[in-house]
Sequence to fold (223 residues):
Amino acid sequence: MKHIIAPSILSADFGNLQRDIEMINQSEADWFHFDVMDGVFVPNISFGFPIMKAVKKHATKPIDVHLMIVEPDKYIEEFADAGADSITVHYEACTHLHRTIQLIKASGCKAGVALNPHTPVILLQDVIADLDLVLIMSVNPGFGGQIFIQNTYKKIEDLKRLIQGVNEDLIIQVDGGIGLQNITKLANAGVNSFVAGNAVFSADNPTETIADMKSLTNSSFSI
Ligand SMILES: O=C(CO)[C@H](O)[C@H](O)COP(=O)(O)O
Fold:
């Protein structure tokens, strides 16, 4: 499966958002990653529909929306209308996860579920066949620039076992503390979608960093 590099807009320079969107358009990145935080599910507030519409106006690549919010069902249709291509909700935020996944699919988007570092992969067993993407959080959600949690590798193994013979085309995404130092190891472990905020936007040359990430994943042995 193709490796997907998804720079996280959370770490962009909002005073120069159009410039940063253009940089991603011109780079080897595959998706835009759009982190929505509500100050309730996570202890931080990021952005919502106005910024989503601004990104959509200029982005030439798919927008991958990660909802770190409570009651995501209320907002799925509006994010889809605003231009989301995939929508990921948190397992921990959904009382009726199966219903939420169906809502995302009915909106025309790819459906993803994210797991916090403490949430075991096995809890997705009964919905795994319905999913397009599982996001394994490799930091506690809420902030960019945190340290990668090593137990993520064990969770990737658990997820690979869970999808075997059931949903082998599933996109395995990781998010948090991803950079040039660990992207090859993650690709070799079976990850095919990499979210990176700080590593891209704090680099001297973000375009070159994205290209380096891409070539490191492409030289891994898992494709
Ligand atoms: O979802 C997120 C935070 O909840 C961010 O996408 C994630 O932390 C990426 O940031 P970085 O690459 O800087 O660690």
